[in-house]
Amino acid sequence: MTIRASAPGKIMLLGEYAVLAGSPALVLAVDRRVAVRGTKSGGPHWQVSAAALRLDHQAVVLPGARPAAGRAAAAGGGAAALSFVAEAITAALGEAAGAAAPLHLEIDSAPLFAAIGRKLGLGSSAAVCVATTAVVLTGAAVAVPTDVGFRDRLFATAKAAHARAQGGRGSGADVAASVWGGLLCYQLQGADPAQARAAKLSTPAWLRPLVVWVGESAPTASMVGAVARARDRDPRGYDELMRAMAGVAADGVLAAERGAAARFTARVQAYADLMAELGRWSGVDIFSARHLRAKALARRHGAIYKPAGAGGGDLGVAFLPGDAEATDLEAALAADGFEVVHCQPEAGGCEVSRT
Question: What is the pTM of this model?
Answer without folding.
Answer: 0.91
